[in-house]
Amino acid sequence: MDCIFCKIVEGTIPSKKVFENEHVVAFHDIQPAAPVHVLIIPKKHIAAMNDVAEEDLPLIAEIHRAALQMARELDVAESGYRLVNNCGRDSGQIVFHLHYHLLGGEKLGALNAK
């Protein structure tokens, strides 16, 4: 498998980690879209949200716990932040390893549906 996020988990590609536990890794995005832009990924390879199995649901909760901790530690919890998961090509998912973007540190534009 040639997954860049799996390589970050393995340590074969460097990253600027801000959080790691047994199941989850969080690191700064190399092309930030906001002053705070952290990617939060499971260590287990899951291609996208649609591939999450029933037994993976505790892992999703662990990702959300990490997101809350990162928001607090990166000082965006009070001012506000966005937690985004893109699922599939039409959503803009580029890396097919489940991941969440934690964005904050400035007033973010509204998400308007067409």
TrEMBL record:
Cell inner membrane keyword on record: no
Motif placement: Histidine triad motif: 97-101
Annotated ranges, domain HIT: 4-113
Catalytic activity, EC: 3.9.1.-
Residues of the active site: 99
InterPro entries: Histidine_triad_HIT (IPR001310), HIT-like (IPR011146)
A Pfam family assignment: DcpS_C
Residue ranges that the Swiss-Prot or TrEMBL entry lists as coiled coil: none
Top-level enzyme category: hydrolase
Record keywords: Hydrolase
Any one GO molecular function term: hydrolase activity
Domain of life: Bacteria
Claim: Cell membrane is one of the keywords in the record: no
Name of the protein in question: Purine nucleoside phosphoramidase
Species, as recorded: Paenibacillus solanacearum
